[in-house]
């Protein structure tokens, strides 16, 4: 269909126009043709298995593999590099669900911080997805490596841009998209180390007015799952992504993978996010990193503590997370998180009492919110605060 559209547009654009004087199309045809070609390619293209075989040079280079299948490096005839994700086929319907989730969600989105889906292949023998190629792989390969080549400014930029990508999914799409598997392994980096959220195999569309969604089966990755997943029949909202992003922030601040066990185990007691809270309680959050990195590290740690609140309602929306990370507001002290590590029950997931401020912390409109308050450099220097009535 796209090819037919493109050929029709090309024929119409290149047809000579019978008129005297300067031909407008002589100047505009290449520009207009390029425009219409790009327009026709906005939606994912359905490729054949033979085309994918040619694009990948008979699946010559494997980028990664896992339970889902394998990802191969490829290239379009015009030289654009691609990553072809071939899903395992079998009696398990989870693969079909993953395929439909990825095409149905990322296939309808366009954002600089979301990986682009060029197209797909689906027939009796193959289920595959064709993505843009990300030169520097996933964030976890750089974050947890021994040389730790990424500088702190770049890590902060990655955190902000990743938050913007998730905010787009939650708050700007026609239907809200919940990712369900936010983690460093699903944040890909291009040639400039700019991040793009990827792997929408667990994602789900939901109506913006729905207070929660119905979940069947296990979703997400252990260690990044919000505590509400531990409770049967507890309502799940888009705030589960906010919690997972908070855990990702802790890993950026610590430059290490979080370890976590259950209950009162030693792993649980040594869990890095819990250590961050203890440093915050002592007023020594700045000691978490080196001198030159302390201001941004403290800000990111504060945002992470807010994102990882036990109660989904107490967690900020991702638009507020972006605002706090960017540094234009004063982050308010968060309540204590992680009660669920030691006592799992519905009480720990209820919103904390906030009788002093009277806030219902469901929005961040206006000059004040539950998570931050507006400020400017001049206001901060002279300790000017916004009056509340």
Automatic annotation (TrEMBL):
Compartmental location: Membrane
Keyword Signal: yes
Pfam families hit by this protein: PK_Tyr_Ser-Thr (PF07714)
Primary residence: membrane
Classification via InterPro entries: Kinase-like_dom_sf, LRK10/LRL21-25-like, Prot_kinase_dom, Ser-Thr/Tyr_kinase_cat_dom, Ser/Thr_kinase_AS
Protein topology in the membrane: Single-pass type I membrane protein
Protein keywords: Glycoprotein, Kinase, Membrane, Serine/threonine-protein kinase, Signal, Transferase, Transmembrane, Transmembrane helix
Ranges where the Protein kinase domain occurs: 57-342
Top-level taxon of the source organism: Eukaryota
PANTHER family: RUST RESISTANCE KINASE LR10-RELATED
Protein name: Protein kinase domain-containing protein
Species, as recorded: Rehmannia glutinosa
């Amino acid at each position: 269909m796209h090819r037919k559209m493109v050929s029709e547009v090309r024929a119409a654009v290149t047809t000579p126009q019978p008129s005297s004087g300067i031909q407008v199309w002589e100047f505009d045809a290449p520009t207009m043709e390029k425009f219409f070609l790009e327009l026709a390619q906005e939606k994912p293209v359905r490729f054949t298995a033979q085309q994918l075989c040619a694009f990948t040079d008979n699946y010559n280079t494997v980028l990664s593999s896992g339970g889902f299948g394998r990802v191969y490096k490829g290239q379009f005839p015009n030289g654009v590099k691609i990553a072809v994700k071939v899903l395992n086929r079998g009696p398990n319907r989870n693969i079909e669900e993953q395929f439909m989730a990825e095409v149905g969600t990322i296939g309808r989105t366009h954002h600089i911080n979301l990986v682009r889906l060029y197209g797909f292949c689906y027939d009796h023998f193959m289920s595959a997805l064709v993505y843009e190629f990300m030169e520097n792989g996933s964030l976890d390969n750089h974050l947890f490596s021994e040389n730790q080549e990424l500088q702190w400014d770049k890590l902060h930029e990655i955190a902000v841009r990743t938050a913007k990508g998730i905010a787009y999914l939650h708050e700007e799409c026609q239907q809200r998209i919940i990712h369900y598997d936010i983690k460093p392994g699903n944040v890909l980096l291009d040639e400039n180390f700019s991040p793009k959220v990827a792997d929408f195999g667990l994602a789900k569309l939901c109506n913006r007015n729905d207070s929660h969604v119905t979940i069947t089966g296990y979703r997400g990755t252990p260690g990044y799952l919000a505590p509400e997943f531990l409770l049967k029949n507890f309502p799940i909202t888009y705030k589960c992504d906010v919690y997972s992003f908070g855990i990702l922030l802790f890993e950026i601040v610590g430059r290490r993978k979080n370890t976590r066990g259950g209950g009162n185990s030693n792993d649980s007691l040594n869990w890095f996010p819990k250590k961050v809270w203890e440093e915050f309680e002592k007023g020594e959050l700045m000691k978490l990193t080196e001198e030159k990195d302390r201001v941004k590290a403290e800000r990111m740690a504060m945002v992470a503590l807010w994102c990882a609140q036990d109660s989904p309602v107490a967690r900020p929306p991702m638009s507020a997370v972006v605002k706090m990370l960017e540094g234009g507001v004063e982050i308010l002290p968060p309540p204590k998180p992680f009660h669920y590590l030691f006592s799992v029950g519905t009480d720990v997931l209820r919103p904390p009492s906030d009788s002093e401020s009277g806030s219902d912390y469901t929005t961040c409109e206006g000059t004040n919110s539950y998570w931050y308050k507006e400020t400017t450099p001049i206001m901060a220097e002279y300790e000017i605060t916004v009056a509340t009535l």
